[in-house]
């Protein structure tokens, strides 16, 4: 289930709590970015570092103290059952590849789902000290600084661009895109390297974001529905369906461009075999 506007507003106290969680996660990951740590390959071939594990453990410990009846899903430790019907989703370091290469483009992502669906979403970019946080019915906010606080933040707002031609569109994982998808978009929009992804969309630095190639994990997309919707935008998969129920591709836009970009990518393949000489697409 994606963001629902006719559901009751999220709990403001939980929104503040999520901001504090993301802040502490950012402090640990920022310190680790400049330090030394071990890493290994997981079964799926992706990297995990000691910092990923430390950040997830920190968030899990805080959740266990504050909301012990809620379920938890974390990228590194999987699912912990709850009895409340509510769930927290943790991506301790979204962009571990960037982190391990000392590229300051990673984030700490937290989402919260209640019986109505997505209720809270937080994306924290600790190296630029910028956080976007949204609560269902409470708006989307941009927070900055070492100790971000909703009282000192400002409302996030997507752009009002109506023409897809030349629209600033961030491309995430383009190395894994099929040529047809890359070409179709390149002919119409202004494709840009992804720097802040959803953060750049809701702060007006981008008009759209496209994520294709190797599938994202649920933890990667979980904060998106409430953040994008509360900032005035729209998010789906590349087929136009609910992003949390789709194939883990993403199209996030200011809303005004959404149908036009969906038309551009309709029926096109969304991933390629990075190891094949001929992707067969």
Automatic annotation (TrEMBL):
It comes from the Bacteria. Its EC number is 3.1.3.15. GO terms for molecular function: histidinol-phosphatase activity. Signal peptide: none annotated. The keyword Disulfide bond does not apply. Pfam families: Inositol_P. It is an enzyme of class 3 (hydrolase). Keywords: Hydrolase. PANTHER family: INOSITOL MONOPHOSPHATASE, INOSITOL-1-MONOPHOSPHATASE-RELATED. This is Histidinol-phosphatase. It comes from Streptomyces cyanogenus. The lineage of its organism: Bacteria, Bacillati, Actinomycetota, Actinomycetes, Kitasatosporales.
